[in-house]
Design brief:
Number of strands: 31
CATH topology of the largest domain: Dihydrodipicolinate Reductase, domain 2
Shape: globular
Strand content: 15-25%
CATH superfamily of the largest domain: Dihydrodipicolinate Reductase, domain 2
Number of domains: 4
Length: 682
Amino acid sequence: MLQLLQNLGSGQTELAPVPAPGPQAGHILIQTTRSLVSLGTERMLVEFGRANWLNKARQQPEKVRAVLQKVRSDGLRATFSAVRSKLSQPIPLGYCQVGHVIDAGNTSGVTKGDRVISNGPHAEVVSVRASLVVKIPDAVSDEQAAFTPLAAIALQGIGLLAPQAGDRVVVTGLGLIGQLAVQILLAKGCRVFGVDPDSVKCAMAAQAGADVFVLAKDADPVAAGLAWSQGQGVAGVLITASTSSDQPVNQAARLCRPRGRVVLVGVVGLHLNRADFYRHEISFQVSNSYGNRESTAAGSAHENFEQVLCWMAEGALKVGPLISSRASFAAAPEVYADLNQARALGVILEYAPAEAAFAQQIKFERPVSSGLGVTVVGAGNFSTRTLLPALTGLKKPPVLRSIVSAQGATAYFAAQKFGASEAGTDISIALADAATEAVFITTRHHQHAAQAIAALQAGKNVWVEKPLALSLPEIEAVAQAARRSGKILMVGFNRRFAPLAVHVRRTLDRCVGPKQFKININAGNLPADHWTLPAAVGGGRIVGEACHFIDLLRYLAASPIRAVQCRTRGTDGQDAGCYTLTFENGDTGEINYLTDQPAHLPKESIEVSGKDWAIHLDNWQAVRAIGLTGVDCRRWFAAPDKGHPQALEAFLEGIVPGKAPIPLEQIIEVSEWAVKMQEMVG
């Protein structure tokens, strides 16, 4: 199928032939008939892509701070590589999509053949979470419905503003969302004052019933707004403008009556003048796009979509005048090449049905290569920034047969970048490929067990990026599949293969007596809604990431784990934990998975001690010893080497002789302890 992609590094917009998404539980599969280009909203993203590196940094100073912090922790080379990889990753454009349901994904509310609106991108076929798909009433055309997500954004902001009938409200910025906001406020019985520098857009808002003010040079919107409100101030101001200036938000505060509200829907400068807000106790809030997934006082996204469609069906929301032009989807790159069309608002893209749009696997013209064939399932950040660069950078790289991802665009990009022969969205097609001897699974954690079992049953050697599974029954099922298949099952426990870990392990062979290990992990904070935190998807951070360090201790101690005690568990939702491990040989170890440490501290610090000696491994860059000779090793100017290439090489070299780099029983042991530790309470 064709999908519109934007490269944030080069600024190039392309209509790419990517594999179509397939049916997925909880998602609706839709064939597109119309989509809407919001010239004002999407212009920001395209202009960011076309900007040079300096201007990109100026537009996102918070990202610059994050980059500088990464330089301190990971080194300049690794940071530069990560930033370059991020900017080279094309992203889908668009979020106003109309079409017919192909597959309802076992969800309620819609059925196959229904006309629906979603926040899907500009693509011939899309897969969208069910909470963001709503059936279109018969009285609403496809073109009208395409405006629903934008109107829902306006409605969400208005819900936070909470105006009452008869209230006076200012809308600053009369682009597409501003025009929709004007109509919604008027439908709610409010009096509206629209502000914009474009006289044509002001005239359009006036035609809808608003009073307007053309923001000419040196004009004073505050004086005009206060005069309009007869000196009383307004109940609230909705900012839908896009500018780097701080003036709109501070002017909004001065326009408000005591305890008025200012809600930001657009993007403006946010250096707030305290005095402007302090004097009349003005509240300020930033709106969350169409709304939250769950119902709130301001409305969920689904509820907002439904309300907008209802107004359209009743004729209370008229979007026809907001259509600037129409174009075929094939001409979409030309539309994006000229997003600065004067006074244009919305462009409707029209789609022609094509049977090829449903293909879930595409092939690239590549030279025929000999060697071990592999498939990578999952094309997220880890896969494209760590696994695939390491895999293709080996001295004897394997032949990349296919890259599979639920989102066809990510599979297409990764296959292009790393030279795979095929890109797809259906794992079963890749597993049926006789030339694929090994499968790498890098999807979200809850998919690992089922995908590993499917690959083993297909006769493939399997690498599962940690964790192996999220429960003891899943671990047992994968283990049984591995034993029956006779193939190698490997989990991406790369740290035991790191050069400095191997160096320390060799040193420990000459150290007599029990050893004490201590690993401090400065894991940092994750957003509260990060996918790794929920048990059903990510499994939690102990099973999902701390398993690395359980395996590292198992390797360094060279002895089975006898018992684990949980000393403390975090209570802030970040899933921190401190554990003591006891090994069969008498060694003991501590794993302190910390989420509240300063970011400038090393991410990983490992200490080993015995009678009259100690070894310290600092962030995979240096080893220092006390009481031992010939141990110190420093590599300060290199990026931390956590053993990814060495682990991959060991796995690939073990396939032909059938020798697993990590014994299956150790993988099961470590995986089971990770699940048990995740469930422990301190």
